[in-house]
Amino acid sequence: MDKSNSIFDLLNKRFEFSELVKDLNVPEHIIEGDINSLRWFVHNGHKSNRFKENYEEALSIAKTILKQA
Which helix (H) or strand (E) holds 53? Predict the structure, then answer.
């Protein structure tokens, strides 16, 4: 995969993450999906969201983005 495709993949994943966390109990700034927000979500998102429908998928996407960034 070339670099331009990976950048587009990351941006798509970031958008998907932002859409998923809109329905979760997170501070408003987390929805932006920047690197610090993703880190916060990985470490703290489980506190009031671990049983919610989109939590596992959002967590997986956040971890994937952090690994690739």
Answer: none
Here the tokens at position 23 are 């329905």
Into how many domains does the chain fold? 1
Residue (of 15, 23, 28) closest to 55 by Cα position:
23
pLDDT of amino acid 16: 97
Q: What is the pLDDT of residue 69?
A: 80
**How far, in Å, CA of 8 to CA of 29, rounded?**
22
What is d(CA 31, CA 20) in angstroms, rounded to the nearest whole number?
9
Domain of residue 11 covers 3-68
Q: Mark out the alpha helices in the chain (DSSP H runs).
A: 3-21, 35-44, 46-49, 55-68
Judge if pTM exceeds 0.85. yes
